[in-house]
């Protein structure tokens, strides 16, 4: 079985980088980091084989389809445009989904009368909003440790991009900028770096209330992510504890900071 440990240069490295960029849309966490990619191999003829698994047998089919649709797009975007074989395992609709994906069918074409939604774009938009808010909170809290609220809220996108320390898996500013670009395609670099998802400009007096709204979204997503990791670990006998993994008590006691935002806020004047 291939694992993240196989990361290297060349095609295999490109494959894993693209897969890592695919997120569970409900959690906004990489499907690789979540352990959903069981295998990602390149055969001798260049064909890509990806095996996919999930925390439960009954994971919502529309969520499953969205993830696999994104996996397919990631694989089809590889530099050598390979043939591919994507296989969902251990799911109640695995046979239908696998056959449908191989035939290029849409979600309603696969599930027929069982598909409550003919179009998953509204669901994607909902998850995109949640991801935007989670990423914005991470960046706001991190920058708020060193910048005043007034300075923070007058930053434009160019200034925020300049504050980006590095590009990589933990590039919180880069991920937020991607969410901004999805929300407002084509917006200029002189646009405000931080505004509400509806586009409202924020002032210092608004920030605490705004952050409280973002926090509610993030806590919900963090809790769902912890639950998914726990279910997957139990299902596949991955019982070892992960350092720093929040428990249910941590959520109840509000001890779960946003990912990538360590340390207390110290500057709000």
In brief:
With about 270 residues, the protein is mainly alpha-helical. Helix content is about 45%, strand content about 5%.
Structural features, described:
By secondary structure, the protein is mainly α. Helices cover 46% and strands 7% of the residues. The protein folds into two domains: 11-118, Fe-S cluster assembly (FSCA) (GMP Synthetase, Chain A, domain 3, 2-Layer Sandwich), CATH 3.30.300; 121-225, no CATH class. Strand 3 (37-42) and strand 4 form a beta hairpin. The N and C termini lie far apart (53 Å). Pfam families: FeS_assembly_P. InterPro entries: FSCA_dom_sf, MIP18-like. Residues 15-79 form the MIP18 family-like domain.
Q: Look at the structure and give the CATH class of the largest domain.
A: Alpha Beta
Beta-strand segment tally: 5
Question: Can you summarize the main beta sheet?
Answer: 3 strands, mixed
Q: How much strand content do the residues show?
A: 5-15%
User: In order across it, which strands form the biggest sheet?
Assistant: 3-4-5
* Total count of domains: 2
Summarize this structure as a short list of keywords or feature phrases.
single chain, 269 residues, mainly alpha, GMP Synthetase, Chain A, domain 3, three-stranded mixed beta sheet, 10 helices, 5 strands, 7% strand, globular, disordered N terminus, FSCA_dom_sf, MIP18-like
Sequence-ordered SSE layout with sheet pairings:
Elements: H1 10-20, E1 23-24, E2 29-30, E3 37-42, E4 48-52, H2 61-76, E5 84-88, H3 94-102, H4 107-111, H5 121-144, H6 149-153, H7 157-162, H8 172-183, H9 204-235, H10 248-252
Parallel strand pairs: 4-5
Antiparallel strand pairs: 1-2, 3-4
